[in-house]
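Last lecture ended with a question: if I hand you only a sequence, what can you say about the shape of the protein? Today we answer it with a concrete record. The protein is Carbohydrate ABC transporter permease. Below, first the input exactly as provided, then the predicted structure, then a couple of comments.
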Amino acid sequence: MAVGAFQASPTNTPAALVPTGDWTVQNVVLVDERVDLLRGLLNSFIVTGGAVAGTLVLGLPAGYALARLRWRGRGALFAAMLAVQMIPFQLLMIPLYIQVAGMYGLGDSYLGMVLPFLVNTTAVFIFRQYFLTVPDSLFEAARIDGAGELRIMLTIAAPLVRPAIATVVLVTFIGPWNEFLWPFLITKDTALQPLAVGLANFITNVATTMPNPNGAILAGALALALPVVVVFAALQRHFRAADLGSGLKG
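The predicted structure:
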């Protein structure tokens, strides 16, 4: 994809890693003229950043409460959360659209695009499973010292589950970043549409009429995929076993 994006005449057959032929940036320039890559990337980062922030702010305490606190209805709520994961998001789009655009009036807005992704039940499940692996003695010692639950979560539990946080950030980032149907449904203003929507419209309506359609499509796909690769590369060093027993004596 990266090689074909900068070739003057890429083919449909797999290209060599360093192919011969003319190299050009014209493919990227032509896509940018019709899609505005920088604006699309900015919109995607706003929507995805809002989803990631909401998942961390709301999902981390939810996972901690399901794993470490004792309260009535905890098991039933966890079962309901697992049941929600079995429902395809596409089945919820029409009622969500009626609620978000009709009742809340959030059509053509960043908040309207972010709202359905504000809490990720998969992220809550990951946090819960990681918090369950933290030794109980760490929590008991902190409570004896007078620490509240919020302080225990932020200063003791969260640093020990950094692999879970990295996993959640990556999983949450990929979903909204590549989402097409919901932003396309809720947003008609092209100035607010994420890059995935802009590129889909470009490929459908414009790319096939260009002199080098393969190169244009590959250039657009590269612009959409590159940030995900960068995020994964930045977080990959955190995908390791946590030192959960480092705070224990003996």
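Comments.
1. DSSP finds 13 helices and no strands in the chain.
2. Residues 24-238 form a domain with the MetI-like fold fold (CATH 1.10.3720.10).
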